[in-house]
Design goal:
Shape: globular
Helix content: 25-40%
Radius of gyration: 12 Å
CATH architecture: 2-Layer Sandwich
CATH superfamily: Shew3726-like
CATH topology: Double Stranded RNA Binding Domain
Number of strands: 4
Structural class: alpha+beta
Order of helices and strands: EEEHHHEH
Distance between the termini: 29 Å
CATH class: Alpha Beta
Number of helices: 4
Oligomer: single chain
Number of domains: 1
Amino acid sequence: MNALELEPSVSSDGRGVVFVLSVRGRDIECVVTREALEQHFWLQPGAAEARVLKAFSEGRMRIAAVAERKVRARAAERIVLTVHDFSLRR
């Protein structure tokens, strides 16, 4: 079973939310960009850190599902989710 572990946090540069996803016994550091949260999860530009984390929390299931797909497609130790990862497939 997959689970988001550890508390998500806003990255030091404020440009995303960092979280850890466990997939098949591997812990993968993931980042969802602030731009993706703004365009796909109703985060207002310039929102405070607490609101950024709330937007992440509200979109957690979808974010985790997209991150898991990206982890399975790539054998990477770190995954960055951008606006394009949440866009409709072509």
